[in-house]
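U., I forgot to send this yesterday:
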Amino acid sequence: VVTLRGFRLVLFLGELNDLETWSTDVGNAYLEAYTSEKVYIIAGKEFGERAGHILIIKKALYGLRSSGARWHDRLAEVLREMSFFPCRAEPDIWMRPSKDGTKYEYIAVYVDDLALAMEKPQE
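Result:
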């Protein structure tokens, strides 16, 4: 989770380097991550024919202890694929050189909320 100081730093660097700043929320973020442990549930009546059966949960769900960590791992994997790397001083600030190589682009991560400072965030 990025600190308030880290968030302010991303906004400052965005303004200093004439970058666009955006914020977004990743909807159903935990469902994007897989769980690493086996979690079993007994299906309720909402499952129709499968009511009473034992099911295995494969995706991280809100409320599981490890879901936050699994989501963070999944997000880190995706950001690395996009050539971002974590800041040494603030690990939840991710950065990468811009396409022209003259400045950096930044993403601050607060659980499933992102603050972006980039040249063209739509791309």
